[in-house]
């Protein structure tokens, strides 16, 4: 090692000369390494930055001089004469690139290091993974490796034996793998201190350490987001509506047809087709990408989803060659190197009913790979509970952990509806049937294809074979049967419903309404709803279904029946064994019994079964909700899951309050929050019919709008879209006028008038009394409330047409008199507008 300055210069000149001699080999090393890393990163980190280069001679000279106390022969001792960097977005991509390097290169473990391991637990700073590598013979790097890179260029050794020994070694280079955040820190901070040109002041170091800590937190956020995005992508399509799903499939098919080599787009298309249950289309799209010579080399998601499609398409014929082909693809996708719990569980599912030992082994394997995975855990428990019912009690901690994962998925809309189905099943296993019903109802509403409900029903059947009593099991079974027929009607689904229908009773005649609410309301509370309900049902002709007791809201249905015996038929659903504190309401037209002990969800489920059996679809049923306890809560959710329209009385409390603040259900378009107003309830329950021809109604709608403009012309409201001409009127406001025109006859009939076509002579408009105008104005406001609510409008402090917000979605009694005048003026003009269109309004004797 040199002592004096002169010695140091001579020593360095000698080292530089030796490095100059071998420099071309390291330059070739850098070029080749760049090609290898770029090819690898293309499949592992699509946005990675690749940097490679041989160490330049001046850089070598500086490092050799500064490190001369440590390295006496730097040409043969330095491990970074060629260097490469792979800069990724996230820590997960760092791990993936690291795995590739360790699988393909010879690693000098002694000199390689993960710099984060140098840091103490309370310390932040420069973090990166450094590999000292050389190329290995016999490895497929995807590019040709020059022969010279498999031998070590030795220079300046006088001992021939030593030189021969070293030439057996491959040249080495350094690869750094780090995230872009770590890279930004390294470029700014590491270069200041690592090379040792000068000592960085402690104050600056502390400031840099704080920056490093902040960057580490950001990096952790990016990593977490990357995992969530991966989960989101795995559920791609499950959070789309049916119409959105169809559009996205069509878009991706066009993209794939123009660029069939983009495997990520092909996989997305396959996932969407699977989500929609289009097995044959998924098969045709994915099969061309299977490597016929070695299927296991096929892009893993494509192989898995093709296997699912083939097995689902032939699920009823497991001996079919394509079913066996699909099984084989799933087997390959389930290999340990993929770590794909979904593939393992899907493969297990293909053996159900054929080899239960294999099913149990595979689900057990999926459970061991990821014990908290909801799908793996629920299926594992289905298998184990048949052998040992105590497994549920032993598994409570992991079940709770899995349920939290379900909720995390549900919160951001991923893995739906499966996360909901799993959550429902896990609640059921823990003896929480009401929470289970809520999750299953949400799952049915989120299901985009019938196989989703069928798969869940099959899982429930497996639990039923365990021979143990599971609280709420029958409730869930019936809900799934109803859900399948409601969402995806078929002869088979209908037959299952018919098997559950009440016996010895006739069909229910439409129209039908269901009244839901608390039976424990005190008389003071009931008085506030009695008038609204009695007035709201005035004019309703049909069947009203409720709880069949005199207590609370069900008792109001008895009063409605007594008040309108010629127009209302009521059916009460009650358990075989009623509680001691319940009194049957003899005013009901009919009481139907279930097999229940005390009131449970069996009663509302049975009323829906009987409605379906009577060919009454959910969308034709109007459900009214007031207050309520836990059974009412389930009734509300069942109605929404099946597709019925649910109108709940605003601020009636308890379960209505919970429902309208539930982030999941409150967004349902079929949920209407009705003001405490009889006219609004009457409009909600009514069916509008008209003897006017469609062209006449359209002309009347335009006349109504023009009259509205004339009445408000003096106000000169700038920017009010409702004041525009008919041609420029937004569609939602055009429809409002059409609804108003359609409702004209119903209003007039309610106060004893009929509308008829005139014989061609001039028509003299009838004069309505002030009381008649007031009645019709209340009805018009109620109609307007329902029309607005049904089209997505919500109550708010200030009117905003673009956001569909209005401060006037309230009861007539809460409406400012100036706004009431608009309704009064609108109905006052009805006879005149009809007369202009050639219609006469006459009093019915």
Descriptive account of the structure:
The chain is of the alpha/beta class. A 7-stranded parallel β-sheet has the order 10-9-8-7-11-12-13, with helices on both faces.
What's a concise summary of this model?
The protein is an alpha/beta fold and about 850 residues long.
Strand order within the widest beta sheet:
10-9-8-7-11-12-13
Low-confidence parts: 117-126, 162-168, 231-235
The count of β-strands is 17
Give the overall form.
elongated
Question: What structural class results from the helix and strand content?
Answer: alpha/beta
Helix content: 40-55%
Query: What gyration radius follows from the Cα positions, in whole Å?
Result: 37 Å
Beta-strand fraction estimate: 5-15%
Helical segment count? 34
Largest sheet: 7 strands, parallel
Layout of helices and strands:
Layout: H1 5-44, E1 49-54, H2 57-66, H3 74-77, E2 82-88, H4 91-104, E3 105-107, E4 113-114, E5 129-135, H5 160-167, E6 173-179, H6 180-193, H7 202-234, H8 242-258, H9 263-275, H10 279-286, H11 300-313, H12 321-333, H13 341-349, H14 356-369, H15 374-385, H16 391-394, H17 396-412, H18 418-429, H19 433-446, H20 450-464, H21 473-487, H22 491-500, E7 512-517, H23 523-536, E8 542-546, H24 552-563, E9 568-577, E10 590-597, H25 602-613, E11 622-626, H26 630-642, E12 645-649, H27 655-660, E13 671-674, H28 678-685, H29 694-712, H30 731-742, H31 744-750, E14 753-757, H32 770-790, E15 794-795, E16 805-806, H33 817-828, H34 830-836, E17 839-843
Parallel strand pairs: 2-6, 7-8, 7-11, 8-9, 9-10, 11-12, 12-13, 15-16
Antiparallel strand pairs: 1-2, 3-5, 4-5, 5-6, 14-17
């Amino acid at each position: 090692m040199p002592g004096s300055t002169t010695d140091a210069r001579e020593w360095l000149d000698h080292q530089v000369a030796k490095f100059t001699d071998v420099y071309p080999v390291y330059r070739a090393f850098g070029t080749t390494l760049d090609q290898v890393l770029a090819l690898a990163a293309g499949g592992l980190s699509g946005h990675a930055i690749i940097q490679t280069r041989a160490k330049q001679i001046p850089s070598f000279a500086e490092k050799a001089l500064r490190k001369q106390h440590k390295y006496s022969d730097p040409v043969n001792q330095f491990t970074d004469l060629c260097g490469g960097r792979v800069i990724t977005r996230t820590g997960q991509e760092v791990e993936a690139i690291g795995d590739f390097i360790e699988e393909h290169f010879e690693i000098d473990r002694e000199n390689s290091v993960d710099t984060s391991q140098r840091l103490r637990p309370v310390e932040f700073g420069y973090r990166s993974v450094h590999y000292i590598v050389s190329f290995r013979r016999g490895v497929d790097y995807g590019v040709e490796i020059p022969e010279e890179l498999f031998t070590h260029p030795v220079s300046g050794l006088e001992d021939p034996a030593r030189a021969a020994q070293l030439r057996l070694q491959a040249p080495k280079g350094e690869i750094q793998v780090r995230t872009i955040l770590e890279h930004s820190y390294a470029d700014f901070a590491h270069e200041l201190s690592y090379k040792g040109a000068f000592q960085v002041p402690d104050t600056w170091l502390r400031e840099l350490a704080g920056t490093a800590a902040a960057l580490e937190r950001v990096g952790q956020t990016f990593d977490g987001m990357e995992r969530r995005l991966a989960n989101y992508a795995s559920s791609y399509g499950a959070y789309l509506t049916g119409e959105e799903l169809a559009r996205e499939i069509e878009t991706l098919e066009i993209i794939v047809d123009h660029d069939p080599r983009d495997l990520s787009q092909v996989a997305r298309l396959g996932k969407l087709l699977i989500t929609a249950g289009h097995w044959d289309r998924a098969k045709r799209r994915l099969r061309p990408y299977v490597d016929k010579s070695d299927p296991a080399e096929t892009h893993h998601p494509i192989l898995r989803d093709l296997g699912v499609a083939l097995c689902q398409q032939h699920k009823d014929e497991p001996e079919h060659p394509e079913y066996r082909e699909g099984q084989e693809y799933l087997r390959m996708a389930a290999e340990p190197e993929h770590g794909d719990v979904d593939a393992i569980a899907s493969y297990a599912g293909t053996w159900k009913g054929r080899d239960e030992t294999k099913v149990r082994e595979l689900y057990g394997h999926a459970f061991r790979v990821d014990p908290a995975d909801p799908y793996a855990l629920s299926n594992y428990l289905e298998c184990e509970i048949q052998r040992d019912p105590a497994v549920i009690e032993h598994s409570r901690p992991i079940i709770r952990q899995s349920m939290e994962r379900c909720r995390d998925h549900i919160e951001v809309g991923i893995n739906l509806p499966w996360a909901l189905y799993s959550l429902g099943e896990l609640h059921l296993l823990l003896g929480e049937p009401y929470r289970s019903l809520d999750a299953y109802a949400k799952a049915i509403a989120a299901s985009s294809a019938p196989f989703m409900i069928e798969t869940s029903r099959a899982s429930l059947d497996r639990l039923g074979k365990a021979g143990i009593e599971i609280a709420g099991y029958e409730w869930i079974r019936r809900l799934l049967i109803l859900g399948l027929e409601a969402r995806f009607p078929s002869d088979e689904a209908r037959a299952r419903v018919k098997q559950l229908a009440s016996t010895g009773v006739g069909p229910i005649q439409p129209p039908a309404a269901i009244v839901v609410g608390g039976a424990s309301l005190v008389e003071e509370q009931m008085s506030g709803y009695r008038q609204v309900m009695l007035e709201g049902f005035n004019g309703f002709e049909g069947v009203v279904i409720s709880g069949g007791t005199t207590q609370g809201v069900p008792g109001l249905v008895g009063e409605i029946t007594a008040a309108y015996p010629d127009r209302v038929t009521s059916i009460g659903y009650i358990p075989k064994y009623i509680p001691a504190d319940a009194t049957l309401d003899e005013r009901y037209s009919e009481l139907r019994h279930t097999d229940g002990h005390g009131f449970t969800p069996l009663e509302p489920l049975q009323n829906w079964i009987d409605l379906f059996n009577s060919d009454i679809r959910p969308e034709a049923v109007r459900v009214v909700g007031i207050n309520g306890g836990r059974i009412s809560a389930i009734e509300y959710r069942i109605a929404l899951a099946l597709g019925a329209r649910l109108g709940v009385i605003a601020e009636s409390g308890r379960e209505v309050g919970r429902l309208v603040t539930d982030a999941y259900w409150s967004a349902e378009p079929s949920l209407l929050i009705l003001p405490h107003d009889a006219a609004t309830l009457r409009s909600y329950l009514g069916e509008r019919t008209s003897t006017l021809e469609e062209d006449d109604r359209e002309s009347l709608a335009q006349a109504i709008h023009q009259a509205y403009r004339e009445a408000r012309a003096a106000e000169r409201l700038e920017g009010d879209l409702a004041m525009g001409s008919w041609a420029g009127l937004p569609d939602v406001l055009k429809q409002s006028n059409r609804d108003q025109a359609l409702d004209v006859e119903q209003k007039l009939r309610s106060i004893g008038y009929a509308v008829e076509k005139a014989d061609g002579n001039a028509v003299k408009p009838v004069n309505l009394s002030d009381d008649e105008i007031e009645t019709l104005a209340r009805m018009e406001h109620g109609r307007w409330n329902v029309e607005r609510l049904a089209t997505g409008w919500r109550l708010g402090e200030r009117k905003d047409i673009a956001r569909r917000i209005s401060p006037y979605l309230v009861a007539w009694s809460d409406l400012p008199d100036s706004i009431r005048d608009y309704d009064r003026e609108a109905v006052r003009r009805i006879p005149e507008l009809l007369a202009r269109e050639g219609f006469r309004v006459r009093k019915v004797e």
